[in-house]
Amino acid sequence: MSHDSHHRPHDNAAPAERGASRRALWSALAILSVFMVVEVAGGLLTSSLALLSDAAHMLTDVAAVGLALFAQRIARRAPSPRRSYGYRRVEIVAALANGSVLWIMAALIVVVAVRRFADPPVIKGGLMIAVAVAGLVAQALAALTLARARHESLNVRGAYLHALTDAVQSVGVVAAGVVIVLTGFTLVDPIVSCLIALFIMWSGGKVVFEALHVLLEGTPREIDLEALARAMQGSPGVASVTDLHAWSLTTGYNALSAHVVACEGSGADDRERIREELTDLLRREFHIHHATLQVEKSCRMGGDAGCCGDWLDRANGEGSSNRPNGAGGACRE
Predict the structure, then answer these.
(1) Where are the domains of the chain?
(2) Do residues 169 and 52 touch, judged by C-beta distance below 8 A?
(3) CATH top-level class of 19-215
(4) Which of helix, strand or coil describes residue 249?
(5) 96, 212 Cβ separation under 8 angstroms
(6) Do domains 19-215 and 225-322 have the same CATH topology?
(7) Which of 34, 151, 179, 293 reaches 20 to 30 Å from 122, CA-CA?
(8) Quick one: CATH architecture of 225-322?
(9) Half-sphere exposure of 328 toward its Cβ, with a 13 Å CA cutoff?
(10) pLDDT digits over 233-289, tens only?
(11) How far is CA 176 from CA 50, 105, 117, in A?
C-alpha cells in the first residue's frame, strides 16, 4: 500500500527566549554568594551546626544557580547533525543534578547531627540568631527573584527550590537560636538540622522525579493524551489515530508523533490539509511545539493491517464498537 508521510519542520513554534529567567538567576547568584561568606564566618564563630548546615546549603544554592545559568547557555546552541534536537535536554540534566545534590546535602546534615546528639558543643545563640536572620533575608530575596521565572524551566525551578529550602532552613536556625538563648537547650540545634534535612529531601525529590519523567520521555503532565486523541480523531477527514506519542524535550517544549489514517477516498491534497489542520490544532489547543504526523489513506483502500486499530481503543483495551463518542471513525467532512 502506498502512503504519504508528512513531517513538520524541526521547530514549528520555538519557545520564547528565557531572558527573564537568566536575569533572575544572575541576581540570585550575586545575593547568595555574598551572604554565603557571611554564614560560613558566622557558623565558625558560633559553633552552630544548624548555621553551618545552612551555609553549606547556601553553597549548593550558589552551585545550583551557576549550573542553571551554564545549562541555559548550552541549551541555546543550535541543532547539529549529531544533536538534531540541539541541547535543550541539558537543562533537565542540570535540574536532575540539582535535586540529587539536595539529597546528598540532607544526608550529610543528618550524619553530623547524629554525632552532635552524643557530644553537643557550646553554641553562641545570640550571634547565631543575627547571622541566621541575615541569611534568611538573602535567601528570601533570592527565592523571590527566582519565583517569577520558575515556571519557564524545570532547571530554574530546581535553583528556586534550593533558595526556598534555604529560606525555610534559616527560619529553623533562627528558632533554634532563640531556644538556645532562652533555655540553654543546645540539642535543639541538631534536632532542627534533622527536620530541615527532611524538608530538603522532600523538595529535592520533587525535582528529581520530574526530571526523570522528562528523561524517560513520559507524557507531559499538562497534556491529557486521551483528550488530545479525541480532538485529533474528531477533526474532519480523520478516520483514526494510531502510534500516538507525546513527550517533552525540556520544560515548556513538547513534541508529538502520530500515525493518522484519513477517511476512505481521501486524496493527496486532502491528506495535506488534514496534516496542516491537525498541526494547528495541536499547537493551539495542546501547546505542542514539534509535531511529526504521518497521514495515509484509509486502511480499507489497501488492507494494510499496520494502520488498523484505533489508539484510544488500544489505550482503553476496547474494540472499535466501544469507541468513545467522538473518538474517531466518523469521517466528518
Answers:
(1) 19-215, 225-322
(2) no
(3) mainly alpha
(4) strand
(5) yes
(6) no
(7) 34
(8) 2-Layer Sandwich (3.30)
(9) 27
(10) 999 999 999 999 999 988 778 999 999 999 887 788 889 999 999 999 999 999 898
(11) 8, 20, 15
